[in-house]
Design goal:
Largest sheet: 3 strands, mixed
Bound molecules: zinc ion
Order of helices and strands: HHHHHHHHHHEEEHHHHHHHHHHH
Number of helices: 21
Radius of gyration: 23 Å
CATH class of the largest domain: Mainly Alpha
Number of strands: 3
Structural class: mainly alpha
Helix content: 55-70%
Strand content: under 5%
Length: 505
């Protein structure tokens, strides 16, 4: 290999390490900001984060970066260099192209519009008045449409946005999958509402001291295989997981004294995200590949842990006495079966983040159909509230009283994050498909959970998913782990079996 290519590779990896270092610094500061930084420091801190982010932007889009990418991704480079170097360069190139194709001033305008829109949205949501937010959303859509024209994509224009969060995902793949999911869930939901045996949940809502909740959460994280020497658990308003590097993956939770489920299932969810990041191969540290493959694959890990383990009967066979031990007597006279049914209650709700496992995908499909309509110029922004309400009626059987609990509920559109929502539903579909593949290799899945041997399940995911970081694309990971492409059948079978039994249909 030419001497110069070796040197360029070395310089490139060093250059990337610097970008990664900036990002780690930004992530620590952002974590600190959300977990108790002093109020008076917030403004300056936000400014510092902004300045460092601008540095990252400069480094990622510089002429130096272009020089590296041209050399490394040449025919010779592709032949000679390691997989990690090439994939890192490809990852950097994707970002480079995306950012460089947008004129700098247009991008700046967009960033300003984003932050302004978020505060306008907050106000509009509070007042439940879509018309306040509408002109901003129209501008965000218009600017995003311009970006789409600058970028390379094939097929449907909405594919350009899907690719931001779920590399390689397209409308052509999603349409039939989401249709099948919708057509599978709605009749099951109707059956539950018509014929299902009522579920009592009253015993869930009793005072459960915060300190006891925290101790329980720590025990469960340990059981999951979360490594406390490579992480920590803190308190926030909006729970999240943040990965600084595989040796420092932090989770946060929110404690509701009268509803222990918020902290417990929230912690299991964020813990699932964290298991992914803690088990990424150390070979990838210092490159841009040391992170999740996509939003959807990430969500598959959190939802698998939260729902398919944390809300399973086997899990509670093991942990119900532990829960009783930490709580203040609220479950004394509740048997395990009633408890299991209560934490799996199905109840269509207007609010996405409060949705149960069965109805959650319907919330996402509504948003997907609306976004796709907007970017195919089939739906106008001004008509969103009405179409939103119609779809909620049709899919979930409920209608919002006002836009605050309808079209205005999520922050995503105000932040200009179009194409993000589908990842949430993809996460569940991926998770169910992986569960099916796992069951074939580990028919004693329930037994492992009941024995608390979650580490064996975690190892399977590390082998098939975690360790690769961004070395593979989402559909490649899915295919290699399960032997087939995206198939919603496994989610529908899982839901059908679980809820038919719970509701004694
Ligand atoms: Zn999540």
């Amino acid at each position: 290999m030419a001497e110069t290519l070796v040197q360029i590779e070395k310089d490139f990896l060093k250059y990337v390490e610097k970008i990664v270092a900036y990002n780690e610094a930004i992530a620590v500061m952002a974590w600190d900001l959300r977990t108790g930084a002093p109020k008076k420091g917030v403004e300056q801190r936000s400014k510092v984060i902004g300045l460092l982010s601008a540095e990252v932007f400069k480094l990622s889009t510089s002429s130096e970066m272009k020089y590296f990418l041209d050399a490394l991704l040449s025919e010779e480079g592709r032949k000679e260099l390691s997989e990690i170097t090439i994939k890192t360069a490809e990852d950097c190139k994707k970002n480079f192209d995306r950012m460089n194709k947008i004129p700098a001033e247009e991008y700046e305008e967009f960033v300003i519009l984003q932050s302004k829109s978020e505060s306008v949205w907050e106000d509009a949501k509070k007042k439940a008045e879509f018309s306040i937010f509408q002109p901003y959303l129209e501008k965000l859509v218009e600017k995003t449409n311009r970006f789409i024209k600058y970028w390379d994509w094939e097929g449907n224009p909405y594919n350009a946005l899907l690719d931001l969060y779920e590399p390689g995902m397209t409308v052509e793949v999603l349409n039939p999958v989401f249709n099948e999911v919708r057509k599978g869930i709605i009749p099951l939901l109707e059956k539950i509402e018509r014929h299902g045996k009522k579920v009592d949940t009253s015993f869930l809502f009793h005072p459960f001291p915060k300190e006891a909740q925290r101790e329980l959460c720590i025990e469960i994280l340990n059981q999951m295989g979360y490594d406390f020497e490579a992480g920590r658990l803190d308190e926030t308003v909006h729970p999240f997981e943040t990965a600084l590097n595989p040796g420092d993956v932090r989770v946060t939770t929110n404690y509701n004294i009268n509803d222990f489920r918020v902290a417990l299932f929230g912690t299991i969810h964020e813990g699932g995200h964290a298991l992914y990041e803690q088990n990424i191969s150390t070979d990838l540290v210092g490159t841009t590949l040391a992170g999740g493959a996509s939003m959807g694959i990430h969500e598959s890990q959190s939802l698998f842990n939260e729902n398919m383990i944390g809300r399973s009967r086997a899990f509670w066979k093991r942990n119900y006495s532990l829960l009783k031990q930490y709580s203040s007597g609220q479950f004394e006279h509740v048997d395990l079966e009633d408890f299991y049914r209560a934490i799996n209650e199905v109840k269509p709700s207007l609010i996405r983040i409060e949705a149960d496992e069965l109805t959650y995908p319907l919330h996402i499909i509504v948003r997907y159909e609306l976004e796709k309509g907007i970017f195919n110029e089939e739906i106008a922004v001004k008509d969103l509230p009405a179409i939103w309400n119609e779809k909620y009626k049709e899919y979930l059987g409920i209608t919002p009283d006002h836009d605050g609990v309808g079209v205005l509920q999520d922050i995503h559109w105000a932040g200009g994050s179009f194409g993000y929502f589908p990842s949430y539903a993809l996460g569940i579909i991926y998770a169910a498909q992986m569960r099916n593949a796992l069951l074939k290799e580990m028919p004693n899945f329930d037994e492992l959970i009941e024995k608390g041997e979650l580490n064996k399940i975690r190892q399977w995911f590390t082998e098939k998913v975690h360790r690769f970081g961004k070395l593979k694309k989402p559909l490649e990971i899915l295919h290699d782990a399960t032997g087939e492409g995206l198939n919603p059948k496994y989610l529908l079978t899982y839901l059908e079996e679980k809820y038919t039994e719970i509701y004694q249909l």
